[in-house]
Every structure is written in C-alpha cells, then in structure tokens.
Amino acid sequence: MSKTRSAKTNSGRFFEDYAVGDVLRHAVPRTVSGGERALYHALYPARHALYSSDEFARRSGLPKSPLDDLAAFHIVFGKTVPDVSLNAVANLGYAEGRWLLPVYEGDTLRSESEVIGVKQNSNGKSGVVYVRTRGVNQREETVMEYVRWVMVRKKDLEAPAPETVIPALKKVIPVEDLVIPEGLDFSGYDFDQAGEPHHWGDYAVGETIDHVDGVTIEEAEHMIATRLWQNTAKVHFDATARPDGSRLIYGGHVISMARALSFNGLANAQMIVGLNGGAHANPCASGMTVRAWSEVLDKAETSAPGVGAIRLRLVAASGAEPFTLKGEDGKYLPGVLLDLDYWALMPV
Amino acid sequence: MSKTRSAKTNSGRFFEDYAVGDVLRHAVPRTVSGGERALYHALYPARHALYSSDEFARRSGLPKSPLDDLAAFHIVFGKTVPDVSLNAVANLGYAEGRWLLPVYEGDTLRSESEVIGVKQNSNGKSGVVYVRTRGVNQREETVMEYVRWVMVRKKDLEAPAPETVIPALKKVIPVEDLVIPEGLDFSGYDFDQAGEPHHWGDYAVGETIDHVDGVTIEEAEHMIATRLWQNTAKVHFDATARPDGSRLIYGGHVISMARALSFNGLANAQMIVGLNGGAHANPCASGMTVRAWSEVLDKAETSAPGVGAIRLRLVAASGAEPFTLKGEDGKYLPGVLLDLDYWALMPV
Amino acid sequence: MSKTRSAKTNSGRFFEDYAVGDVLRHAVPRTVSGGERALYHALYPARHALYSSDEFARRSGLPKSPLDDLAAFHIVFGKTVPDVSLNAVANLGYAEGRWLLPVYEGDTLRSESEVIGVKQNSNGKSGVVYVRTRGVNQREETVMEYVRWVMVRKKDLEAPAPETVIPALKKVIPVEDLVIPEGLDFSGYDFDQAGEPHHWGDYAVGETIDHVDGVTIEEAEHMIATRLWQNTAKVHFDATARPDGSRLIYGGHVISMARALSFNGLANAQMIVGLNGGAHANPCASGMTVRAWSEVLDKAETSAPGVGAIRLRLVAASGAEPFTLKGEDGKYLPGVLLDLDYWALMPV
Fold it and tell me: Would you indicate the residue range of the signal peptide (chains A, B, C) (predicted)?
C-alpha cells in the first residue's frame, strides 16, 4: 500500500482556461428554507416588510414572503466562486443584473455562467474575464442574471493571448427591461406596517439620504454569512492568508449591510429588480463600522398597479463622510467601501 | 439635477410626542419559521423540552412545539423600539406581562402600543412614558401583552409638561389572571425527557437555586440575537457610539441567557406565562461571564390538568456572588445585571 | 418565609454511578427543521450536494435532502453530555458508529445510552466508562448508534472498584455491516452539480489528499454550533473555567470543520455511514486556523446501484504539515487536532 499524493483538489481556473462561449455549470445546488431567511435577518438589520411578513407579501399580491432579493443574489453568486474567482485578483464590476422571479422556501437554486468576454492585460500575467451568470430554479426558470467581470491570473505565462472580446454592456438597465413579479400590486400598500410614510412620489431625483445608523463588523458574522451562501473562497476565512492576519470580507456582506441600513429612509424601496453597476471601492475588514447613504438617480413609472421604479446609488462607508465619494483625483476616497447602482420598486 | 438632503430618516419620538391614549402601530410584521427556533437554540443554552420537541409538546396537549415564549417576547418588543425607545435614556421597568397564545411556525406577528402614562421629570429635560404593548398574530389575536416604561428625552425643552398620568399597575399578576394555553395537560409529563425529576410540589417558597453554569458573552452573538428580533437600536451595533468602544447589549439578551441557564435546576418550569416585573440592574458588555440564580417567590394551583404555577425571581450576574442582590444602600450590586419576576407553569 | 438552598442542580454522574447494563434515557428531545440545516451550512463550509439540494437528493433516490449526517451525530451526542461527560476528564475514543436512517425536517430525535463497560483506573481516582449510544426518532427507529468511552472522575474515592468489563469493539466496521439508505442510487449521479469529476474508481488505497483550505476559529462560531446541538457543557462556554481564559472547543466542531473542508478533493464522498474510530489528538482553541487532509484507507463495493464505499482517514491540523500525524514517540504531533476513521458512500 504505497502512499500517493492526490491531484484531485480544485485549483481553480486561470485566465487561459476561459474562452468566449464557454458555459460553466456551477456546482452544489441549494434548497432554501425558513432557515436562510431567519439567518439573513440575524446577520443584517434587514427590515423591509415584504421579506419579513407573509401577510404583507400577500397584501402586495405575492403568494408569500420571498427570500430577500440579495440573499438570492448571494446564493447564485456563491456557486460561481470556485469556477470564476478562485484565482481572481480583483472583482472589477457588475452590470445588467436583473431579478426575474422571486425565490420561495422549498425552491432549489443552481447557477451557470457563460463567458462573454476576455481581454489579456498588457503585462501578460493576467486578464479580465466577463461572465453572464444565471440563477436557475428547480423548474429550469431563470430567477436572476447578472454580468460580472474579474481580473484573473494566468498560470501559464506562455499561453497565447486570446482575441479580445469586450461585451457591450448597458450602463443602466432601461426601465422597460425590468421584470416586475407577476401579481405585484402596491395599491393597497400599508405604509404603517412598512415603517415609513414616504411614497415614490415623495422622492426627487438628486435627493440624498443619510441612513444614519452604523454597524461594527465582526469576523464571526461575515464568515457565517459568507458560508451560508456556500462561498468558501479562502481569503474570507483564513487569517493566515494575508500578511496582517485579517480576513478579506466578502463584498456581498457589505452590499447586504448597506442595503439593510438603507431601511432608515428607504423602507419602502421594497424589491430590488435591477443592478446597474457596482464597485467594491475599498476592502472591508473586521472592526470597521459601516454606514450608508443613498442618492436618488432616477425614477420611472411601471405598468404594475401602484408600483413605481426608483434608481438609487447606495454607498457604504467606514470613515468617509456621508455624501462624499471620490477625491479630486477621481478615485474613491479611502473610507468608501461600496458604490452600488440599482433599481428598486416602491409604492407610488 | 440639484442635490437635496433628505429629511426622511426616522429620528424617533421625543417625550413631548407622546400623549396618553395614543396608539402606535409598530412597523415590520414578521412571519416565524423553524429558522427562528434553531437560531434561538444556537444563541442560548435553551433546553426546555416543550420548546425543543414537537413530540413532547403533543404529549403536553399542544399541537406542536411553540416558539420559545421569550423569543415571542423579543419579536414583539423589537418592533416597538423605533417608536418607543429610540431616544430613551433608560428602560425603567416592566409589569403586567402575559403570554396569551402560543406562537407557531407560520404565524405572523405585529405589535402595537398604547400610551397609558406620562410624567415629565422635574429637570424639564426628559420624562417617563408608560406603554402597554400587544403582540398580535395574523388572525388579530393578541399573543402577548406587557407594560413597559422608559425615560425619554425632550427635544423641545419649551414644550409644556403634560398632565401627569401614572397608571395603576399590579405588582404581581394574580394567578387567576394568568392564561394557560388551551389544552395544556401535564398529567402525562415525561420527567426523563424533560431532564429533571423535580415536580412543582418539590419546590418550596423561599428556596434558592444556583444554576451553576456560566456563559461568556461575545459581540457577534448578541448582535445576531438582537437583529433577529429586528431590534436595530444603534447602541447595540455601533462600537463608535460609546466612548469606550463597547456596544451596549440588549437587555433581552441577558433575560434569555439567564432563563436558558436556569434549566439547570428548573428544567420543568416549562412555560413562562406572566412577567410581574424586571429591572436591568446594570449594563452587560461583551466579555462578561453571565451566571444565574433563582428564588421561588410563590406557588399556586391552576385549573389545567397536572399544571401548577410557580413565581420565580431570576437574577443574572457577572461577578456578583449567587444569592446576593442589593447592597446596604438598597441599590443593586455592581455585578447584578438582571432582576426578573415571572410566573411559569410546571408539572405538579 | 425562610430561604433554603436548593440541591436540584444536576452535578452529573461520577465513575461509581455507572454499572454495566444501565440504560440512560437522555433528556430533551429535538425536532429538526430547515433552521438546523441553514445553520449547519452557515457554521461550516459544507457543500456536499446531497445535503444541500432536495433535487440532488431525489435524483439519488432519497425523498429529499436529509440533515447532514454529522449534524444528526451532534444532536444525538449533545443529549448524552449531561449524563455521560459532565465530569469527564477526557473523551477517549469512538467505535462502531453507524448511521442507520437519514434524518429529515420534522423528525424528532432523542438519545439513549447503555453502559457496556467500566474499568477503574489504577490510581483509584477515576475510571473509564464505555457507552453505546443510540439516536432514536419519533417512530422509535434507531437513526444512528456509536460507542464512546470517556474517563470519568470518582466522587467517592472509597467506593469499591467495579468488576472490570471491557467491551469487544471492532477496529473497523465490516462493509457488510454498513447500512445504505433505502433507495439510494448513484447510477444517475450528476458529477457537475456535485462539484468534482472523481469517481469511487478514481481513488486508490493509500492515496492522500491535501484539502488545502483553512478556516480560522472564532469563539462565537463554536459556541453557536455547540449550543445548537444542546451540548451545554460549561467548558465550551465559560471563559473563567480555565486558567488561560480560553474556552475548550467541542471536539465535534473540529470534526464538522474538517469534514466540510474535505469537500475540496472528496466532494463525492457524499454520505458518512460508518465511524470506525476517532481521536481528539489535541485540544482546539479560538484563533487556530484549521486545515484538513485525508487518506484512503480502504474501498469496498456495495449492493446499492452505483454506490461504492470508501474508508477514509480524516485529519484536522493547525500548524502540523499535511500528511504528518505522529512523532517518533508514537504520539500525535502537537499541531494535530483530530484523527478520524470513517466510511463514506461514493458514486462508482
């Protein structure tokens, strides 16, 4: 019985392993239950009523309360990590994210990604990979989709540079491309139960909102959250992976924290239906106190009864003043963690 | 597109904003699932069998295992925070708390509070507000109620003092006012499965019980717990809110911790049905090791088969010796965190 | 009303309290829900598809996704602590562990243990107790069983030594004694969705696998996990119980962490069906970064369609190099935390 070292461990894909048109079927489908919802509310100060109460959801025309839209995003995203970002140097951006169907308890999600662009960097050591990822339920329906691009290292520096393909991506999803859940109806919306009296009509383009509250980040919490989405990238968990002994926090943790904090001032921005773009401006680490502010970027009517669309910038910061974003050099200020651009649905 | 600062953030109510007779419908209803139960057991060393096992609950005459009575309390309480205690200087007391109906998976809870008393302090800068809060389920049934009074700051120091109204509150809920869940029957109680052999008849008024075990408090745990109840008061989460960088722990976290620790010696004090009073004697902070002791204050028979009522003092402490409570000056000792007075149901 | 000190607190059993043939019915039955599954995935980087997806489980011939086999073990184990190991000096070993029936949401588990061996130590101050523990569901079916032996202190040093009984225990469970869940069928196994392409046939006896990833241990996480299994032994929770202020981490936390890490290289070792033995080689403490490696010890065919059995050594380490285990003195290296020997089921 001789001992042999196995080569079965996944070492991830490198830049030269991606070709435009490849479809990656990501592993480990996930059935969701009330447990995911309870944990989401335990990890983030999430209080949007549609995701908290079956009764509120039914009054809004849905069969019951769906899984938080960002929880659905995290589940779909988490599955892509072993195939897309294990050897990523940086998560560069998001675009064309759309939520197409609510996710309910008992649904099983899987993910798949199509490589839609590649561009080798001029240094020859890495390149940018663009993927369009879809989350698919047990009925083979797409529940959400988004484009993400990452910088990935090459393993074989001699591998030839692929033909550059940069996908044409919309800077902003046109409102007519947003998908409103079937049956959604805010005409009988209960503002008292939702927590704030502000209608869609009360928000003005250009208006900025300081969400006031702050949450100090703990190692145990971001790790519990990140694992819940089965995102097991070692940088988030292994304190020995970085020279200073800190763990790099999953960017999605900051997205969910900021969105939850935005309840205070945007309690009626109930459903996220579009992700126009987003930048993880600076890394987040344990001990930081995260705050958030928003800016109304646009507004649009929809065909659903009582439902308006609002386009919001959501900024998470630790140390940067509210309503500050970039320095004179055009770069994000050191205290800015997240700059997200999304569409939400509100009662008119 | 000019930028405007929003005034939509909730800054909470101040003393002058409360008038006797006001009814506050608190926001964000909540549907509970198995997730809340699992988290409650993960956050506290809770082992009372009725809240752990559907089989044990059925043998006790209930349709299935209800949500822990304190978890129901926390959910109801959490909703009141934005309307009652956002600007509170201190949580002064509880009275007349009664659990009226068990809460089961799938139930949706909301809360409402009636202002039943106001009294401006002599300094003119703050006042005491008394509210009677009710937790209501999706069938508009009241599942629990309690009175709570808090000291709240005035914003407008010029606002006239309201007429003082101090509600007449019972020091102890009479046993005939306690509501025993329909069908509850301990005549076939399984003491082995419950964990201890001690009957209601084995406890004597005046008996004191040291619950022995201790739990050291972690920041991540109290924040997860507090958020689970959608209590998002910033003092619990924001390490920059206090000069020493510590977070003030939600008093309910200490209540649940002490109650769970009391299993060791009071495993058969299954259901909490009455809250006579309670004081958060000193603040709790991360790093403290919480212990608990109890004293039997009273006993009473009930009309339900095999069910006795027991009135207990539950004390949580960190540093104070068991069975010590107040100093010669009549003030709580520095190591005492909680002094709670409640009614529970036990097998006779 | 005179105050009396109660003697109702459980002080646990001492060595002289165990006699061969005793059957201990452990307290606090537990109904499991989706909450336990979600928490298990939040606490460990668990990604085996059978325990994550109802769809994957159905394709494998099961009615739905069962509770993770180790979660079932922890629930069964946790109940034994107050009766078996409250006064234990050391957890010495496991043997003859078998999973007999999957556990599903809604099942209620209880545990019972039979004392099958006792041996007083030569120092007269302690002894070894062997118990065979069974986890039983609400239909009185045994869902799992295992033998465990612990060293327990004597309280009464004058108590006579019992007749020594050392049970004959199998070093390895013969493959024909393993119980394969009814209906399990891996003939249509989806390797893409499971996460790795490696078949049972691809593993060779003697092969070693470095699972690469590491997870740094947090106090909040191991306490949440341990409480979830209602294992409330104070050493895991009370920082004042040990001179250095650290908490002793429940050995099962390390088992689950290592098993979850082993996904990377053993994603298709889906179900654990046998526990041949295990040693908690060194204690684990907060701040350690746990890594894992495996060695293929044996392989065997089974009668179920497409299902092979694989016997694995699973080693968890913090600081010890992969594939190192014991020093020249035959003792475990200081950085080795766990040495586990188990049978799992894989697609052939």
Answer: none
Composition of chain A by helix, strand, coil, percent to 5: 20, 30, 45
Contact check, Cβ <8 Å, C240/B216: yes
Tens digit of each residue's pLDDT (9 = 90 or more) over B78-120: 999 999 988 888 888 999 999 999 999 999 999 999 999 999 9
Return the CATH superfamily for domain C12-32+67-169: Hotdog Thioesterase (3.10.129.10)
Decide if C42 and A224 are in contact by the 8 Å CB cutoff. Answer: yes
Domain with CATH 3.10.129.10 in chain C: 12-32+67-169, 177-348
Q: What is the dihedral of CA B207, B213, B216, B217, to 10 degrees?
A: -50
C partners (3+ CB pairs within 8 A) are A, B
Of C33, C52, C211, which has the smallest distance from its Cβ to A30's Cβ? C52
Mutate to test the interface with A, among C288, C289, C291 (most CBs of A within 10 A): C289
What's the CA gap between C242 and C231, in Å, rounded? 18
Whole-angstrom distance, CA of residue C250 vs CA of residue C227: 10
Q: Does A187 reach chain C within 8 Å, measured CB to CB?
A: no
Judged on CB neighbours under 10 Å (0-12, 13-18, 19+), A11 is exposed
Using a 10 angstrom Cβ sphere, with 0-12 exposed, 13-18 middle and 19 or more buried, the burial of residue B171 is: exposed
Indicate the class that CATH gives domain C177-348. alpha beta
Return residues 46-65 of B near C (CB < 8 Å).
47, 49, 52-56, 64-65
Q: Which one-letter DSSP state was computed for residue B44? A: S
Asked if A55 and C76 touch (Cβ cutoff 8 Å), the reply is no
A128 is written with which tokens? 């940018």
Q: Residue B240: which of A64, A202, A214 has the nearest Cβ? A: A214
Which positions ≥6 away from C17 have C-beta within 8 Å? none
pLDDT band at residue B2 using 50, 70 and 90 as cut-offs: low
Chains in contact with A, where contact means 3 or more Cβ–Cβ distances below 8 Å, are B, C
Tokens of C264: 């990377």
Q: CA-CA distance, A250 to C228, in Å (whole number)? A: 25
Contacts of B127 (CB under 8 A, 6+ apart): B15, B118, B119, B120, B121, B151, B152, B154, B161, B162
- Residues of each domain in chain A carrying CATH 3.10.129.10: 12-32+67-169, 172-348
Give the span between the Cα atoms of C202 and B122, in whole angstroms.
82
Interchain proximity A38–B228, CB inside 8 Å: yes
**CA-CA distance, A256 to B116, in Å (whole number)?**
38
Q: Which CATH superfamily is domain B172-348 in?
A: Hotdog Thioesterase (3.10.129.10)
Q: What is the mean pLDDT of chain B?
A: 95
Structure tokens given for B155: 């914003």
Distance CA A257, CA A275 (A): 16
Chain A, nearest residue to B106 by Cα: A54
- The alpha carbon of B327 is separated from its chain's Cα centroid by a whole number of angstroms, namely 25
Chain B contact present for C141, CB below 8 A: no
pLDDT, tens only, C271-284: 999 999 999 999 99
Which residues 92-121 of B have a C-beta within 8 angstroms of C? 105
CB-based contacts of B312: which residues, under 8 Å, 6+ apart? Answer: B262, B266, B269, B294, B295, B296, B297, B341, B342, B343, B344
φ, ψ for residue A128 (rounded to 5)? -105, 135
Token readout for A87 is 């050897």
Say which CATH superfamily domain B11-32+67-169 falls into. Hotdog Thioesterase (3.10.129.10)
Average pLDDT over residues C186-204: 97
| Count of CB pairs separated by less than 8 Å, A with B | 156
Given a contact cutoff of 8 angstroms between Cβ atoms, the answer to whether B256 and B284 are in contact is: no
How high is the pLDDT of residue C201?
97
